[in-house]
Amino acid sequence: MSETAAVLELRNLRKLFPAGRSGIWARTSEFVHALDGVDLRLEKGEILALAGESGCGKSTLALTLMGLEKPTQGTIWFEGEDVTRQSRAGRQRLCRQIQMVFQDPYESLNPLMTIGEIVAEPLDVHRLAQNREERRGRVEKALEEAGLKPAHIFMNRLPHELSGGQRQRVVIAAALVLEPEVLLADEPVSMLDVSIRAEILNLLAELRERRGISVLLITHDLATSAYLADRVAVMYLGRIVELGETQAVLESPAHPYTQALLSVIPVPNPRKRRERIILQGQPPNPVHVPAGCRFHPRCPKVMERCRVEDPVLAAVGAGSHQAACWLVSGGGSDE
Amino acid sequence: MSAVTTTSFGTIWRSARRNWMALAGLSMLAAAVIVAVFAPLIAPYDPKADLKVSIDDIYAPPSAAHWLGTDDAGRDVLSNFIYGARVSLIVGFFASFISVFIGGTIGITAGYFGGRVENILMRITDIMLVIPDLPLAVVLVALTKPSLMNIILVIGLLGWTGTARLVRSQTLSVKERKFVLRAKAIGCGHFHILRRHIFPLVLPLLVANTVLVISLAILEESTLSFLGLADPTTLSWGQMLNFAFTRGGVSAGAWWALIMPGLGIVWVVLGCTLLGQGLEQVLNPRLEWHHLSVGPKMVARGAKEERP
Predict the structure, then answer these.
(1) Which domains does chain A have, with CATH numbers?
(2) What pLDDT, in 10s, does the model give residues A3-33?
(3) Cβ separation of B188 and A121 shorter than 8 Å?
(4) Nearest of B160, B143, B274, B153 to residue B221 by alpha carbon
(5) Best mutation site among B178, B192, B199 for testing chain A: the one with the most A CBs within 10 Å?
(6) Could you tell me which of A41, A76, A238, B247 has the fewest CB atoms within 10 Å of its CB?
């Protein structure tokens, strides 16, 4: 692996949650494999989309990166420094560098605090403003950067006076006020009206342009990632199954799971007919991850080998496009 | 939308104004507080003044000089009653203050931190909850010197369990809200989260609960005084009942000496209960019907609100 400017790098990250009863009498022999060996690099100034269906571990990944969940195994590297297990002070410092935008802008703002207080809170917690003028100045700057102009008319409002899109902008402003290197956006637009979504996504793209901020965009919607991301990572049951430049992944998906996801995106051309691949069954239980390839029980192209051996990410073609599938890594050569 | 999403004191006041229970309770309590505060101006006699008493003055029936008659020592019952409000309310307010402080702290700590901390704190609460309050209070007051301070402390230290349970459950629901997670992501410490994000949303419920605890404290003070465990020199409503009961008031047929303090206790306790329950209705979303349910109450509420 090259040691270029990866802002954030995950190596073999695992997170297990004990399943079933907890307490003195419970024997926890079973675990939910929320993250099951995730390797991922986020380059400086890049927008990386992490796509996958609900329950595949996307949000656990975000919370683990924020230090809100402790990884069971594996390491997290921030700008070449291992930040996996840190003291309180270290985590506090890391907080300034990695900030998060949450899914639900209606729930992620304290209903009793004004917008000004909400955006100033990170500054107060990290003691970043020397005096009141500086504090106010930075809050206004963050609000305007997040597209709430003019900032002063929002300062004294309460969250319930704003629309969903405006609230999401407040959340983004509260993240920006710390001037972070990385923004984790956990489904930032899924709770918003369709008409507002593009605005928020454009805002993220704009921030990348202006500040060189890196964005990990977590989404269940590949169309969203196509709109914005440089690269796409597709996650299935706690592991990355396909990774590559957005165009490469979306135009020639190599993994059958990605193919299925893409085949159900509506095409705005009624005459163009495509075959939809409808996956059979539910996503398997993350307590009992299937042996072999984790996707094999639902895979339309399942082979004998898939039931036994677990494929790793392998290069698809010449570029950086990778997929974890025996169809890619020379599955046919054995037969 | 449920009442709790935008819980500020402004909204509470607006919905409390429409709630007759809260309004009635507030007026009753306010009347009692006014009487207690301005007791020296209202009361016709000073109950502590030395009296020259003849046999006719003891348990004298209501007359022009003594509107509510006199008690076993020939003192004016109306004046005793007015001054007694002071003791009852002081005990009620201070004891419930102690209770709510302890209960609130324990409840919010247990609810927020969870795990072992919660287990230990809530088991202590359960133990306190199953011990019968009154016998324990009697023992404690009997062991310590019977003074107003001790009565307040005993009532306050025994009465926090309900508050702890209530605050804990509210904390449990508030801490799961996403803005608390966001605060953690920002890097806020526990104390900051408790102070800025949890406590303000628990506070309204705590206020409603305080009012209910006041009524319990007043009732308990009256009980202890009636049982003769209070300082005999401070005259509370419970003490008046005690004197009238033990010093021949019943056999003398002096109903005036018994009824007035009883009415006073009922008045204040009822006022607190009405206010507390009214506030709780305004604040606690679980007491309200779901907005999708088709119940008679929902229809009635909707009809009521349409009236100007």
Answers:
(1) 6-256 (3.40.50.300)
(2) 456 889 988 888 888 876 555 555 556 788 8
(3) yes
(4) B153
(5) B178
(6) B247
